Amino acid sequence: MGNDKFVEVKNLKKVYNNGHEAIKDVSFSVKKGDLVCLLGPSGCGKTTILNILAGLLSPTSGDILFDGKSVVKTAPKDRHIGYVFQNYSLYPHMSVLQNVMFPLVVGKNKKPKAEAKKIAEKYMKLAQISDLADQRPHNLSGGQQQRVAIARALVGEPKILLMDEPLSNLDARLRLKIREEIRSLVKEVGITTLFVTHDQEEALSIGDKIILFNDGVIQQDDLGQNFYLKPNNYFVANFVGNPVINNFKVKKDDGKIKAKDFEINVDDLDQDRFKREIPDGDYILSVRPENILPDENGGLPVHVDDIELIGRERILKFEHDGKQARSLVDLEAPIKVGDDIKLKMRLDRIFLSTPDGERVY
Ligand SMILES: Nc1ncnc2c1ncn2[C@@H]1O[C@H](COP(=O)(O)OP(=O)(O)OP(=O)(O)O)[C@@H](O)[C@H]1O
User: Fold this and answer.
1) Bridge-based pairing state of the strands 300-303 and 340-345
2) Which of 171, 97, 92 is nearest to 138 (CA)?
3) Where in the numbering of this chain does the ABC transporter domain appear (predicted)?
């Protein structure tokens, strides 16, 4: 109960009528006032969870508590939730002001018009849409429509705000701008927010913490930086990071980790990072492109096939064991396409996983 577990989800399961198990025993909690991102690939169950929290879907089993009280049997309208959908869902025949006021002028708790207008104006100001009050939705840009949808979701002063991919219909530049605005708006209002996205960068930039799902199961529930530095497993290491992590097939044998063209002494690894003793056999060594860098004493000789410029850095592309791999270097590094160079890995930043994805180092 209390502020640390303002939203609590316990052993939630959802099996759809066709037998598909979309959510498999999911438990997590959200602190009061936090903005938490539910992250994961398409189909991992993010929307299903939001809809269960909102009461639009009922769970097959498990419990949901808001501020310590179970709400699974509470009607959606009594859960004090604001919901922002991907496609805005504004009423086209109403002005911006009428759209924002709408939740306050319907239902049994409706307010006198003057009061509703005053509250709507407060949230329109926070969402920076005061000057659009008389416009119709079709005259607005995607970013403006999304601000209207957010103001409308907040106007009933809900306890919890749910946002399902609210930025996905916006172009790349606007996404960056609006995501910052959303974060400062929900922090100013102080509302506990669950924000669904499939975009890891979006989640890392705005989430107080991130819950990463795959196939209806939580893979990691953690602060953003730990997804980079301490991924729970192979899936997490591969889902988070840009450019994507490199994966090399290796064999542990004879006190060494052996790959095509390089080997590492097991004794040179940080023994404290082993999660358990590992027998000889096949593993996957994963290393982020920023942790495998040109070094004349490096143990991995490669041929630079291509170089991609990404803003302040460059990605060197090379082939290893039949697969493309990458090293991230700064702009000034004196390397060009066609060079033969050596790469060195930071051994305290590599990960080892079993072939079925369990991280062991
Ligand atoms: N009504 C339904 N009946 C059967 N299966 C469903 C239903 N709704 C969703 N699913 C399935 O459940 C899984 C989770 O769906 P959900 O919409 O929660 O995923 P998501 O992570 O939000 O994905 P996306 O980002 O694509 O919206 C998917 O495999 C989806 O096909």
Assistant:
1) antiparallel
2) 92
3) 7-240
Q: If we measure between CA atoms, which residue out of 161, 159, 198, 200 comes closest to residue 182?
A: 161
- pTM of the shown model: 0.93
> pLDDT per residue over 209-265, tens digit each?
999 999 999 999 999 999 999 999 999 999 999 999 999 999 999 999 999 989 999
Whether CATH 1.10.10.10 fits 5-239 = no
CA distance 257 to 280: 9
* Cβ count near 207 (within 10 Å): 22
pLDDT in tens, 88-139: 889 999 999 999 999 999 887 789 999 999 999 999 999 999 999 999 999 9
Q: How many CB atoms lie within 10 A of CB 328?
A: 18
Pick the CATH number of 246-353 from 3.90.700.10, 2.40.50.140, 3.90.1150.10, 2.40.280.10: 2.40.50.140
CA 276 to chain centre: 29
Check pocket membership of 19 for ligand 1, CB cut-off 6 A.
Answer: no
What ligand 1 atom has the least distance to the C-alpha of 198? 25
Listed by start position, the domains of the chain span: 5-239, 246-353
Q: How far apart are CA 5 and CA 29, in angstroms?
A: 5
> Which of 14, 15, 16, 198 has most ligand 1 atoms within 8 Å of CB, for mutation?
16
The answer, yes or no, to whether the previous bond of 243 is cis (omega within 30 of 0) is: yes
**Fold equal for 5-239 and 246-353:** no
Cα–Cα separations (whole angstroms), residue 189 to 34, 107, 127, 241: 11, 24, 11, 31
- Whether residue 219 contacts residue 236, with contact meaning beta carbons closer than 8 Å, is answered with yes
CA distance 70 to 360: 38
**Atom of ligand 1 minimally distant from the CA of 48:** 18
